[in-house]
């Protein structure tokens, strides 16, 4: 039977990772994979996570299954962090395997509720958004979110896309720190879009992956809190970046329903869906997050370290902005947020950066700013300035 399986489509970022690893030059720069890095290039375990893990190993007395919805304290704790108040009765919530697992649950739920559901997605986006729609069998309706050359959100196209939604469709928002452009809609854009979706009976699906790394934890979560007041909404909150728990696959899906009774049905369906995907969600990352959120000293440590991470990214953006006289394509980078920027580069230029300057980035031209170590920003600007025209 396997002879019918076609060759796999290689993952572009894994190719970049392999090329970076194979590059023998000591001054090589890795701007590829989207993980936070400190100024030594490491992606370390956060101190609060280390402390919580040590306690967990000492105190954990069972590995028996938890509930279908996951760790109750995690669901309540991360839900309250995200929404700023305890989860309301009209919200269903379930632990998912990272942001990806939460988005998969959200799409499966939407499909179960409305087999004709379409996902409206602005491009460019995180590639897994489209992959997840395909895996779930949900029709994708795309629009242009961003003009890379002009470094500008195409607000007209985004608005037209919202106006084109039907009742029961999903419209995807990046909660903050848009991946891959770093350019977020502002409050009035979002309020306008939510009003259109509400009018059409379409549902906002908010992907919250980079809280704490934009303008600060509270500011970064403001949009989620607005969305939670909508008649219906789906909110995925990943712990991969903000807690550095990438490989522990930790996240929460919140489904806001119109009523408490509707929320109870949604909760049941989410648990049924999750039962055949993972049966029970992984416990470790969730237990770590609970410890951090519940213990005030650990929570403070976590927030301080998260703020240091944010400050480093902010500083790098300022450094790159100051270099825009060397490389004009960096102009405006300090107005963007999070770890990404899309550079308007051709495949040949991206290959030249790797070949001639040991600077490795995604084939789309997306760079992870946190991949820059001390002195690298100037090297990047000089390399960009030295590129021949496409
Ligand atoms: N959403 C966006 C926009 C992302 O960039 C990421 C990670 O890169 C995720 C969600 C979730 O990642 P994970 O499944 O590792 O939590």
Automatic annotation (TrEMBL):
<dbReference type="Pfam" id="PF00155">
    <property type="entry name" value="Aminotran_1_2"/>
</dbReference>
<dbReference type="GO" id="GO:0033585">
    <property type="term" value="P:L-phenylalanine biosynthetic process from chorismate via phenylpyruvate"/>
</dbReference>
<keyword id="KW-0032">Aminotransferase</keyword>
<dbReference type="InterPro" id="IPR015424">
    <property type="entry name" value="PyrdxlP-dep_Trfase"/>
</dbReference>
<comment type="subunit">
    <text>Homodimer.</text>
</comment>
<dbReference type="InterPro" id="IPR015422">
    <property type="entry name" value="PyrdxlP-dep_Trfase_small"/>
</dbReference>
<dbReference type="InterPro" id="IPR004839">
    <property type="entry name" value="Aminotransferase_I/II_large"/>
</dbReference>
<keyword id="KW-0808">Transferase</keyword>
<dbReference type="GO" id="GO:0042802">
    <property type="term" value="F:identical protein binding"/>
</dbReference>
<dbReference type="GO" id="GO:0005829">
    <property type="term" value="C:cytosol"/>
</dbReference>
<dbReference type="InterPro" id="IPR000796">
    <property type="entry name" value="Asp_trans"/>
</dbReference>
<keyword id="KW-0663">Pyridoxal phosphate</keyword>
<protein>
    <submittedName>
        <fullName>Aromatic-amino-acid transaminase</fullName>
    </submittedName>
</protein>
<dbReference type="GO" id="GO:0030170">
    <property type="term" value="F:pyridoxal phosphate binding"/>
</dbReference>
<dbReference type="GO" id="GO:0004069">
    <property type="term" value="F:L-aspartate:2-oxoglutarate aminotransferase activity"/>
</dbReference>
<dbReference type="GO" id="GO:0004838">
    <property type="term" value="F:L-tyrosine-2-oxoglutarate transaminase activity"/>
</dbReference>
<dbReference type="InterPro" id="IPR015421">
    <property type="entry name" value="PyrdxlP-dep_Trfase_major"/>
</dbReference>
<feature type="domain" description="Aminotransferase class I/classII large">
    <location>
        <begin position="27"/>
        <end position="384"/>
    </location>
</feature>
<comment type="similarity">
    <text>Belongs to the class-I pyridoxal-phosphate-dependent aminotransferase family.</text>
</comment>
């Amino acid at each position: 039977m396997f002879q019918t399986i076609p060759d796999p489509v290689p993952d572009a970022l894994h190719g970049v990772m392999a090329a970076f690893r194979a590059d023998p030059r000591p001054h090589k720069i890795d701007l590829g994979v989207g993980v936070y890095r400190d100024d030594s290039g490491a992606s370390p375990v956060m101190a609060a996570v280390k402390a919580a893990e040590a306690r967990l190993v000492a105190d954990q007395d069972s590995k028996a299954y938890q509930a279908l919805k996951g760790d109750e304290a995690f669901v309540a704790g991360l839900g309250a962090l995200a929404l700023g108040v305890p989860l309301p009765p009209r919200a269903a919530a379930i632990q998912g395997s990272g942001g990806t697992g939460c988005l998969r649950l959200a799409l499966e739920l939407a499909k179960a509720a409305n087999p004709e559901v379409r996902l409206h997605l602005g491009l460019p986006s995180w590639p897994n958004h489209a992959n997840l729609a395909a895996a779930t069998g949900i029709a994708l309706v795309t629009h242009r979110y961003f003009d890379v050359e002009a470094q500008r959100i195409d607000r007209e196209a985004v608005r037209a896309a919202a106006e084109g939604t039907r009742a029961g469709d999903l419209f995807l928002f990046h909660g903050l720190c848009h991946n891959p452009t770093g350019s977020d809609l502002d409050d009035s854009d979002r309020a306008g879009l939510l009003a259109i979706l509400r009018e059409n009976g379409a549902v906002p699906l908010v992907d919250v992956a980079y809280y704490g790394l934009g303008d600060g934890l509270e500011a970064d979560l403001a949009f989620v809190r607005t969305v939670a007041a909508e008649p219906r909404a789906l909110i995925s909150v990943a712990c991969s970046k903000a807690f550095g728990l990438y490989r522990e696959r930790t996240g929460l899906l919140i489904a806001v329903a119109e009523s408490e009774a509707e929320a109870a049905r949604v909760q049941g369906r989410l648990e049924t869906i999750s039962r055949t995907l993972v049966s029970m969600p992984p416990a470790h990352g969730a237990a770590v997050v609970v410890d951090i959120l519940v213990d005030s000293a650990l929570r403070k440590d976590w927030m301080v370290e998260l703020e240091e991470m944010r400050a480093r990214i902010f500083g790098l953006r300022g450094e790159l902005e100051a270099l825009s006289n060397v490389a004009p394509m960096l102009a405006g980078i300090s107005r963007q947020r999070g770890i990404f920027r899309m550079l308007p580069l051709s495949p040949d230029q991206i290959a030249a950066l790797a070949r001639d300057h040991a600077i490795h980035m995604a084939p789309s031209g997306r760079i992870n700013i946190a991949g820059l170590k001390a002195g690298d920003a100037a090297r990047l600007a000089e390399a960009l300035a030295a590129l021949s025209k496409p």
